[in-house]
Design a protein that fits this description.
The protein is of the alpha+beta class and 353 residues long. Strands 1, 2, 3, 4, 5, 6, 7 and 15 form an eight-stranded mixed beta sheet that branches. Strands 9-10-11-12-13-8-14 form a seven-stranded mixed beta sheet. Helix 6 crosses helix 9. The relative contact order is 0.15.
């Protein structure tokens, strides 16, 4: 076991980009976007010093409670190799001592039904929290839609879409919606539309500076901005991330105007076509609610993503090591209370409009 240093950053990045379990949130570039966190990377190695596993850990001070350690969509390794997971856990525990952390939390890119992984991590000492259903219950979405595009053509992928989805893609084109790749300067238009989206759908929007930081660290190799225009005016946009063998639909925004022109469908199709051209294995639509009910406020998002023929995927949830169990239990209670109060405040403010 060892940690990534300045001298071994390229070695780590090469390992990550070539691994089947690659995830952009485990990258050094993404770590630089998360400026409020300290970044450390633990490496597992074979007897020759070759990297065989990794986990990128972010560390942040939580007022009152102390330092929390977190890993999004790690580890990257053979997830059924206990020796590798033991090495990575050894490194995590060293970091916990170094930073006096009260907990290590990870939300791995591993499906809920992977009983073998669950058994291994529980033997090592981890606990598994797998009862989340909504976006607010965890840091990363527990439920996503993923489209398998490996070795498939555009026609094969398009044929798997719901009939209404194909119709809406054609409608957008027929009505004159045009998709263009944007620049950093176009992030201003994207952000304005995103503020509009957040106000309409009731979610918190990151500041423009956050997206500009993303662009600086990830574009053009790993990030794009696609904007949809109607009569030369921006009406919708998406930010996809490309890393290793996958593409992720990370952010989307749509104006209240011209929604009937279905620009979001055309944007997704254009990005999927690019992912196919890049010979990627998967297009990840990211999060949806786990409550599949037409009365749920997020059901429209579920239906939109489902229409692209993607697989509804449930992850194992939060896997964690509580170094100070009582502190962590208190923190979780405070975290849940804060989110509940924030939701109440948002609903009260919406009611005043």
């Amino acid at each position: 076991m060892r940690f990534v240093t300045k001298e071994t950053e390229n070695e780590y990045t090469e390992f990550l980009e070539k691994h089947d379990r690659c995830n952009f949130q485990q990258s050094l570039e993404w770590g630089k976007v998360k400026t409020a966190w300290i970044k450390e990377v633990v490496l597992a190695e074979d007897e020759n010093g070759k990297i065989i596993g990794s986990i990128c850990v972010l560390i942040r001070k939580v007022p009152i409670f102390g330092n929390m350690m977190y890993s999004s969509r790690g580890p990257v390794c053979d997830i059924h190799d206990k020796k590798v997971l033991d090495q990575l856990t050894e490194g995590v525990k060293e970091l916990a001592k170094k930073y006096k952390a009260f907990v290590f939390r990870m939300e791995p890119d591993i499906k809920k039904d992977d009983g073998e992984f669950r058994k291994i991590v529980e033997e090592i000492g981890y606990k598994v929290k797998d009862d989340a259903k909504d976006f607010k219950d965890e840091i990363q979405p527990r439920f996503v839609f993923r489209l398998d595009i490996k070795d498939k053509t555009e026609d094969e992928i398009l044929a798997g879409f719901h009939q209404k989805t194909r119709y809406n893609i054609r409608l957008a084109t027929k009505k004159g919606v045009v998709v263009k790749e944007g620049t950093k300067e176009d992030l201003k238009d994207f952000h304005k539309i995103m503020v509009e989206t957040g106000s309409r759908d009731g979610f918190i929007i990151r500041p423009l500076e956050y997206f500009e930081k993303m662009y600086d660290e990830l574009a053009p190799k790993h990030m794009k901005l696609l904007m949809a225009y109607y009569e030369d005016k921006p009406i919708s946009g998406i930010i996809p991330i490309m890393y290793g063998n996958k593409t992720w639909y990370l952010y989307g925004a749509s104006s209240n105007s011209h929604r009937n022109l279905m620009p979001n469908y055309l944007l997704q199709w254009e990005m999927i076509k690019q992912a196919i051209a890049n010979k990627h294995d998967m297009y990840d639509f990211r999060g949806v609610s786990g409550v599949v009910d037409e009365s749920h406020p997020q059901y429209g998002l579920y239906r939109f993503k489902k229409g692209f023929g993607a697989e509804f995927t449930e992850f194992i949830g939060e896997v964690y090591l509580p170094f100070k169990p009582l502190v962590y239990k208190t923190y979780k209670f405070a975290e849940k209370t804060f989110r509940t109060l924030r939701d109440w405040k948002r609903r009260i403010n919406e009611g005043k409009k």
